[in-house]
Write a structure and sequence with these properties.
about 150 residues; mainly beta; Jelly Rolls; 4-stranded antiparallel β-sheet; about 5% helix; globular
């Protein structure tokens, strides 16, 4: 029996709390063994307001080899001290918008989700070449990682 070449492990906990009540949480933990030991593609960039195709790196040539895409809005990571009210307000505007290019059906991309500052999104798209990303507001710092199947 051949051993798995590589794996992805995800550990995530989401908490919901109301003052005076016990918090509730949802844990997600999974591991996926990959059929390839190909190196993931990772790009740090500043996403601007005009929708552009998601940068898939060397996976763009063979999109069927993409197993998982992880997009992180890194905008809340760069404060050296406590931010001012103006900085907090500006930060809230730095959201990423993920859309789908509908090709000949519509000239306008179909928005599917926002990624707020400090948040991330994991997706397994059926057709990753149709994904577009843009910033709502000013240019937004992000990290996009594409993992093999």
């Amino acid at each position: 029996m051949e051993l798995p070449k590589a794996r992805i492990t995800v550990l995530e906990t989401v908490y919901y709390a109301v003052i005076g009540d016990n918090p509730i949480s949802q844990d997600v933990r999974f591991e996926q063994h990959l059929s390839s030991d190909e190196q993931p593609f990772q790009r740090q960039s500043r996403i601007k307001s005009d929708p552009k195709p998601l940068d898939l790196g060397w996976f763009a040539d063979v999109p069927s080899s993409i197993g998982l895409i992880h997009i992180v809005n890194t905008e809340n990571r760069y404060f050296q001290v406590n931010p001012t009210e103006e900085e907090v307000k500006a930060l809230k505007e730095k959201r990423l918008l993920l859309s789908v290019d509908l090709g000949g059906v519509s000239d306008t991309p179909l928005p599917i989700c926002e990624i707020l500052p400090g948040e991330s999104l994991r997706i397994r798209p059926i057709d990753p070449k149709t994904l577009l990303i843009a910033s709502i507001g000013e240019a937004t710092r992000s990290i996009i990682t594409v993992y093999p199947k």
